User: Which sequence fits this backbone?
């Protein structure tokens, strides 16, 4: 499962806004907004969640599940070298 806090943290690490994440995941901005406003684990269509996770992964973010190997233990995000350039002109200055 992915949490709303993980999505927000991942966007912050990448310096992108909700609009850019929606474009990368090929889903709507309102879907991203609903995911980010969820309490705890994000609920929604599995396909939409998968698209967000895959988009963040391509951008260089590893989502760490509760109990996954990580120091210290717990949920979070890890920024690594991206597989693709996710920045778009203006995104880094226009954060949500």
Assistant:
């Amino acid at each position: 499962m992915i949490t709303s806090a993980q999505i927000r943290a991942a966007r912050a690490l990448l310096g992108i806004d909700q609009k850019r994440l929606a474009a990368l995941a090929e889903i709507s901005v309102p879907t991203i907004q609903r995911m980010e406003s969820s309490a705890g684990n994000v609920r929604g269509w599995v396909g939409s969640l998968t698209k967000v996770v895959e988009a963040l992964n391509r951008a260089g973010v590893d989502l760490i599940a509760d109990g996954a190997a990580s120091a210290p233990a717990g949920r979070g995000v890890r920024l690594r070298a991206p597989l693709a350039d996710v920045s778009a002109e203006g995104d880094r200055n226009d954060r949500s």
In short: The chain has four helices and two strands. Residues 90-96 have pLDDT under 50 and may be disordered.
